Amino acid sequence: MTLAGKHILLGVTGGIAAYKSAILVRHLCNEGAEVQVVLSKGAAQFVTPVTLQALSGHPVRDDLWDREAEAAMGHIELARWADLILVAPATAHCMANLAQGAAPDLLTTLCLASDAPVLLAPAMNQAMWRDAATQRNAATLAADGKRLIGPDEGEQACGDVGPGRMAEPESLLNAVKAAFKSRHPANPRLAGLNVLVTAGPTREALDPVRFLSNHSSGKQGYAIAKAAADAGARVTLVSGPCGLPAPDNVERIEVTSALEMFEAVQARAAEQALVVGVAAVADYRPAAQAPQKIKKARAVDDDAGPPSLTLVENPDIIASVAELPNAPVVVGFAAETENALSNARHKRHRKGLDAIVVNDVSNPKIGFNSDHNAATLIWADGEVELSYQSKAALAASLIQHLADLFFRPASEMPNARPKLRATPLSSVATSSGHS
Ligand code: C5P
């Protein structure tokens, strides 16, 4: 009963996903929340007040001008009653009203009148979601401190396929729980921005049952994805296999190999403001994957020795992002075992990264599977030490530094200069080989 005693105002606006609001009420009540539902006029076309009233145990309100309801509990009282407002589904129309501070009906009035956090679950046709006006409204709402959950991608009721499906009731329940747990105020520099994080190891298949991989636990990457989401960013986590649960409010894309990770990142790179590559990507993959399990050589031919393995190089995922025209801010990680700082400075330059986070993995206290880490953040004009601390705390501190370094409004940057891109660094020799 993680929501025991919490007052949740559920706003439902007029989209086909409104039918899922009944399940959502059920989930919220099962967690101990007290739920009052407010329907927009459009929502009442999709779902009846009687259903939601029965499930929530409270009368459902849909009219700003309802004299009886206003006599019993005026809209201002209802706005004060709410510990949290969740609008699910939130239509393009509702988002447009909220983005402008317009209050033409009871729900939008409540959102404006309440100090409670507002969570929005956009749901609409994919073209409506992609429309520049909706994207502008989504960014405005996020910058105003509203949390947007979803939309998900997939098949839509109208037959289209794309982004616009309402996040599932279970994800919305998790987002509500996270909102109560979260003590992190959104960072206005990152709120509403798209951030992509790669995390975990990759697996490079040798045959159907064997692969080459590494010890990356994914913990630091997942912590960074969570810290960026806590800061209010819209986070996509492209993760190799590591068995960790996806953080709340993060869209996770699960991949296996470096090539799959490369494709997942490339497909989304153009829309990102920040890409943080934490994944321990395999530098090489077997040149060919055997279609059948490779047999022990002696079982096939008494004279045969062990098979030899030919490797080919994988693409460098974040260096490729940094090369794109209008590249986002790109931050890499470097796990080094010797000459950590100087190797990392070279690596940042060689890959055309805006910044690199280096840690000395020869220190057993901060090894791959540890819950703690210590690192140095290096960018073109400076370096800062991120002292020994939990991976979660280090992630929060890193996100704060990145927000300050790369997302300060122009008005706060009198000496702003263009982002540095990969250029030959004549004063230093480039490191040979891969570190
Ligand atoms: O493996 P390396 O030390 O070069 O990794 C440095 C950074 O580059 C890391 O952020 C890692 O995620 C990224 N990387 C990548 N694609 C590769 C290899 C590394 O994005 N193929």
Characterise this structure:
With 435 residues, the chain is of the alpha/beta class. The chain folds into 2 domains: 7-183, 3-Layer(aba) Sandwich (Rossmann fold), CATH 3.40.50.1950; 194-427, Rossmann fold. It has 15 helices and 19 strands. Strands 12-11-8-13-16-17-18-19 form an 8-stranded mixed β-sheet, with helices on both faces. Strands 2-1-3-4-5 form a 5-stranded parallel β-sheet, with helices on both faces. A two-stranded antiparallel sheet has the order 6-7. A hairpin with a 2-residue loop joins strand 9 (204-207) and strand 10. The model is unreliable at 416-435 (pLDDT under 50). It binds cytidine-5'-monophosphate (C5P). The site of cytidine-5'-monophosphate (C5P) has 14 residues, from helix 13 and strand 16. The site of cytidine-5'-monophosphate has 14 residues, from helix 13 and strand 16.
How much of the residues is beta strand, in percent?
A: 15-25%
CATH topology value of the largest domain: Rossmann fold
Structural class of the secondary structure composition?
Answer: alpha/beta
Hetero groups: cytidine-5'-monophosphate
- Runs in which pLDDT lies below 50 for 5 or more consecutive residues are 416-435
End-to-end gap: 49 Å
Let me know the number of strands.
Answer: 19
Q: Which range best describes the helical content: under 10%, 10-25%, 25-40%, 40-55%, 55-70% or over 70%?
A: 25-40%
Shape: elongated
Rg, nearest Å? 25 Å
Tally of individual helices: 15
